[in-house]
Amino acid sequence: MKNARLFGLITLTALLAACGSTSNTPSAPSAQAAEFVPGEVLVQLDSSLRAQSLTALAATLGVQSVEVVAASDGAPLVLAKLSSGQSVESAVASLGARGDVRYAEPNFIYHHDATSTDPYFTNGSLWGMYGPSTTPANQFGSNAAAAWASGSVGSSTVYVGIIDEGIQYNHPDLAGNVGNPNEIEANGKDDDGNGFVDDKYGWDFANNDNTVYDGGNRGSLDAHGTHVSGTIGARSNNVGVVGVNHNVRLISGKFLGRNGGTSANAIKALDYFIGLKNKGLNIVATNNSWGGGSFSQALRDAIERSNTAGILFVAAAGNGGSDGVGDNNDATPHYPSTYDNSNIIAVAAITSSGGRSSFSNYGAKTVDIGAPGSGINSTVPYDKYASYNGTSMATPHVTGAVALYAAAHPGASAAQIKNAILSSAVPTPSLSGITVTGGRLDAFAALSK
Ligand SMILES: [Ca+2]
Ligand SMILES: [Ca+2]
Ligand SMILES: [Ca+2]
Ligand SMILES: [Ca+2]
């Protein structure tokens, strides 16, 4: 995407004050560095402006051009490209003060929540899938293997949105578990009528095209998205690893490129999955192993649209910021996991010996549950496997459990699924008092809730 080279690191200080939003969710109180795209501002219009053409709207707002990001909320959310010389800070302040604008905010940049990668480390261990009575056993794993033993292995009628980098959908351990069944590949037609042509495996919002796997000779691109996908749904009884679900359907809402992703593109990805659900696909959750930016009313609004559509938003609690030591999200919000939407499940990471991973954020009020996040083996591009650490890796264990539950309980509501996951958490000393449940994921115990 051409914006990529425009991405710069800009520290938000004065901007936080200017960013006065209409939400009752607290803004970040700290002077954390938040990145945003220079020359762009997200503007939520009032309904009085809805009838204008985009050209007229740009003139009205005094900006170079506007693009509609979301239109489903009564009045459009637009991405305004500023005229040269116009700063994001001044545009947020002046646009936000207009009577015909609900709010204006920076177009924040997000990064995935993995702390490190070790592509040469493949030890064959999948402790995150084990439980106390499985073979092999690890009491701190997700206990997915016990669910499989009871006959729950997921279903091809359950769909999960992967909002991340892209996915190597033809990886031997993922092929068949990734795809939009109502779209025909490469025929130049929008077969399912969702507004996206040939979105067979999803859509690349970072580059606005239908190639969600851009690995090829471009290095590690799409490794993170492929890794979280394998934890949710790598295939069984063939090669490599296995996911929490042996059967599931994953679809890519790619918005992270080499330099991260933006609020505008994350919002487009969220609305894309709502659109697919409205077209009849049983989208039960999105996996969100990423974070950054500062408070975004526009992103919070989009998550709420997902909530209304009955889609859970499973989110990484974050990896401690620049020093890599876990932070308290109650004191220092990590977005998007800290938003107050009721469909969010915020996930901390634990190690194979039950400790909180040193990098994992926590929060008695803002982080719901722990799951395996250290030394997690999964799929990566070029048909390979690698071990990663991060709340990014803990999150798909929970998303996988959500999909497993949905397969076993057709028709369960998002609230019912969330309650089953959280109420079955196993009390865990390292998470006690610093997470909502004080416990870790048990994908098998959740099934009987
Ligand atoms: Ca389509
Ligand atoms: Ca097509
Ligand atoms: Ca692409
Ligand atoms: Ca496999």
TrEMBL record:
GO terms for biological process: proteolysis. Coiled coil: none annotated. Belongs to the peptidase S8 family. Residues 1-23 form the signal peptide. One of its GO terms (molecular function) is serine-type endopeptidase activity. Keywords: Hydrolase, Protease, Serine protease, Signal. InterPro entries: Fervidolysin-like_N_prodom, Peptidase_S8/S53_dom, Peptidase_S8/S53_dom_sf, Peptidase_S8_His-AS, Peptidase_S8_Ser-AS, Peptidase_S8_subtilisin-like, Peptidase_S8_subtilisin-rel, PfSUB1-like_cat_dom. Residues 27-107 form the Fervidolysin-like N-terminal prodomain domain. Gene3D superfamilies: Peptidase S8/S53 domain. The active site is at residues 164, 224, 392. Residues 156-425 form the Peptidase S8/S53 domain. It comes from the Bacteria. This is Subtilase family protein. Pfam families: Fervidolysin_NPro-like, Peptidase_S8. The lineage of its organism: Bacteria, Thermotogati, Deinococcota, Deinococci, Deinococcales. CDD domains: Peptidases_S8_Subtilisin_like.
